[in-house]
Write a structure and sequence with these properties.
about 210 residues, mainly alpha, 10 helices
């Protein structure tokens, strides 16, 4: 690996992590005078918890900014001439930064929004496959975490198959495994509640609506 490639990889990891770590889930509520979402519900800074703090409208703003973090992290690497390896590392680093933000004590969200933003640049067609899965699972179960887990798993499978069939560079295998792996890792508490039958449903037990005002 050439020196310039190592530099781009280093930039990808550092920039992706720092960009992903920008805590829009805290910044947006603070700017409008709302409560810190970390004091409510799951204590996370993702869209579901931000909606508890300031409602769906501002949660959507925060969520779009979180999506943008993943896209910008990859586009930055594209701008400096980085290929698939640093681009994918930047996308993965943004997910980690979002969930383990260096700006708020290594806390954060669960990585779904920046993962979506990264996919918009790296392989946008995969979103056409996983978005219906996400919506259908949530409509049927009313459990947002289950939608995220199911969609990320499907996306990983599709990415791995596409890498083998097309074929794509081997680094895409890491992408297909790494994105759902990180999202599932950052959903471990949700998975435990799902297995115990205690996961919150949308509109019930404090999920999304009853603390959104």
């Amino acid at each position: 690996m050439q020196t310039i490639d190592l530099v781009r990889v280093a930039v990808a990891l550092v920039a992706g992590f720092l960009l992903g770590g920008i805590p829009f889930g805290i910044i947006v509520p603070r700017l409008i005078g709302g409560p810190d979402p970390r004091t409510l519900g799951s204590g996370r800074t993702g869209g579901a918890n931000v909606s508890r703090a300031v409602g769906y409208r501002w949660a959507a703003v925060s969520g779009l900014l979180d999506v943008a973090k993943g896209s910008v992290a990859v586009l930055l690497i594209v701008a400096i001439g980085g290929g698939p390896v640093p681009q994918i590392l930047a996308a993965l680093a943004a997910i980690v930064g979002h969930s383990r933000s260096p700006f708020i004590g290594l806390k954060g969200g669960r990585g779904v929004a920046p993962a979506t933003g990264g996919a918009l640049i790296i392989e946008p067609l995969i979103l056409a496959v996983i978005f219906p899965v996400f919506v259908i699972v949530i409509v049927v179960t009313r459990i947002s975490s289950l939608g995220s887990l199911g969609a990320s798993a499907m996306g990983g499978i599709v990415m791995i198959v596409a890498t083998a069939v097309m074929p794509l560079p081997p680094i895409y295998y890491l992408y297909g495994i790494g994105v759902p792996g990180l999202i599932w890792l950052f959903h471990l508490d949700n998975i435990q509640r799902l297995l115990a039958g205690r996961e919150r449903r949308i509109g019930r037990s404090g999920e999304a609506t009853d603390k959104s005002r």
